Amino acid sequence: MGGGQEINVFGIDINPKAIAHCQSQGIESKVVENILDFFPAQKFDLIITTHCLEHLPKDSIIPILTHFRKHCLAKNGKIFVAVPNAQSHTGCYWAYEDFTHTTLFTAGSLIYVLKMAGFSDVAIIDKDALSGSKGLKKMIRKMFLKFYMLQYKFWNKITASAIHQPSPIVFSYEIKALARI
């Protein structure tokens, strides 16, 4: 990283095979059975949790996020969260394809649990699912996305369906959020 900043990476998981793989790649990591018993020696500037929260019992999600905020993040720390998107075309698929999923999220429910855990400045990232697209591919995806949004709004009108207005609509299979203490 520029400016001579040192980057330290530390990983935790409940799966010893995942930890062994990380360690084989030179990444410091540790098996942690109960995240609420994890108190790092040094707090982190950033915590990344991807496709983990949906495996937790619903009543433990806010306490675990609160634990991250209070005991694992440094002052001005941030958390990046990615979870399957219950609002996507594949939302129901992800709810039942992976039998270990206990909770799925919408953008609104992810924002809610992060705020209830004491995080602020919660931002949904890449809500249009265009990240990584370039040039003609990006233009085509944008065009189809506009068509999809019109169709989505049309069918919601026809069926008298609604979404919670403060909730951003996210079109990718996953919701990504960044929040700070």
Walk me through the topology.
Blueprint: E1 10-13, H1 16-24, E2 28-31, E3 44-50, H2 58-72, E4 73-84, H3 91-97, H4 107-116, E5 120-125, H5 135-158, E6 174-180
Parallel strand pairs: 1-2, 3-4
Antiparallel strand pairs: 4-6, 5-6
Model description:
With 181 residues, the protein is of the alpha/beta class. The protein has a domain at 34-129 and 166-180: Vaccinia Virus protein VP39 (Rossmann fold, 3-Layer(aba) Sandwich), CATH 3.40.50.150. The protein has 5 helices and 6 strands; from the N terminus they run βαββαβααβαβ. It has helices at 16-24, 58-72, 91-97, 107-116, 135-158, and strands at residues 10-13, 28-31, 44-50, 73-84, 120-125, 174-180. The protein has a 4-stranded mixed sheet. It has a two-stranded parallel sheet with strand order 1-2. The radius of gyration is 18 Å and the shape is globular. The model has no long low-confidence stretch (mean pLDDT 91).
Main attributes of the structure:
181 residues, alpha/beta, Rossmann fold, two-stranded parallel ribbon, 5 helices, 36% helix
CATH architect. name of the domain at 34-129 and 166-180? 3-Layer(aba) Sandwich
Provide the low-confidence segments as ranges.
none
Query: Which structural class do the helices and strands define?
Result: alpha/beta
Oligomeric status of the shown chains?
A: single chain
Strand content: 15-25%
CATH class of the domain at 34-129 and 166-180: Alpha Beta
State the distance separating the first and last CA atoms. Answer: 24 Å
